[in-house]
Amino acid sequence: MTHWLISANTKLYNHYKSFKDHGFIDWKMSSRYHVGDIVYVYSSMPIQKIQYKTVVEEINMRFSEIRDDREYWKDLNAYNIAKSGLYARFRLLERIDGYELSIEKLKQHGLKQAPQHPTKLSGTLLEYIEKNFQQNISIVPQKLGKNNSIVENIYPDEIDCPEKIFEGAQTKVMVNTYERNSKARAKCIELKGTHCYVCGMNFEQMYGEIGKGFIHIHHLVPISKIGKEYQIDYQKDLIPVCPNCHAMLHRKKLNGESPSVEELKKIIRKRMTALNLDF
Ligand SMILES: [Zn+2]
Ligand SMILES: [Zn+2]
């Protein structure tokens, strides 16, 4: 869980009323928030204080999925510009309004300058901010995630690899450990980059900044072939794949086996040719 400090432009939007009326604000995502992260909201001039403590309840929502909040916008131009991109839902946990979290005080406790872009909080500054809110134990709201379960990291990269989502068999989880292991991950990316080995997709090319470095890692060795002595070979055993191809690699064909990378590539090629698309 990460603690963030973000800035609310009070000239553009009425955050106070929006939080008061609905208990949450759908905020343009300019950082990689995860569900459960805590976000402190600093109100810009003329207020210049941290006033809200929120928790990230949902991420990666499109404009069409968010609450209509046009009435809280003071500047409709800015509203229209904000319509693109992805949003996160910040659920209000607590509002305070005191001198203790004013810019002067924050600076005395380690803040460099008035926040503009989202920054991660840590150390003494975070401690200081936290102790000014009553609820300084991290609370898990009732309705986190879509299935009422507590989701620490909602998007697949670091959460469950598909076998967990789709099948959940005990033995499969072992393969999973290689795919989720951060050293194995780093090694694989270092050797092979972040393009999908099956379809070629690259998240940074596709989504720009927000996609940078995002990729799944797939472990090629079937669990049945792994003995106790298994030593992972980063070059041979791991490949970067996009979440779609990853899911397909873990699906079973009619004969009960999962498709190989080559097979999957062939399938895509054939279909693309049939559809007359380049691949
Ligand atoms: Zn792919
Ligand atoms: Zn996999």
DSSP summary: helix tally? 11
Q: Tell me the name of the CATH homologous superfamily of the largest domain.
A: ph1033 like domains
Ligands (ions, cofactors included): zinc ion
Shape: elongated
Distance between the termini: 39 Å
The chain-level structural class is alpha+beta
The CATH topology of the largest domain is what?
ph1033 like fold
Strand content: 15-25%
Got a strand count?
8
Named CATH architecture of the largest domain: Roll
| CATH class membership of the largest domain | Alpha Beta
| H-E string | EHEEEHEHEHHHHHEHEHH
Major β-sheet strand ordering: 2-5-4-3-1-6
What number of domains? 2
The mean pLDDT is 80
The main β sheet shows up as: 6 strands, mixed
Low-pLDDT stretches are 135-175
**Rg from alpha-carbon coordinates:** 23 Å
Helix content: 25-40%
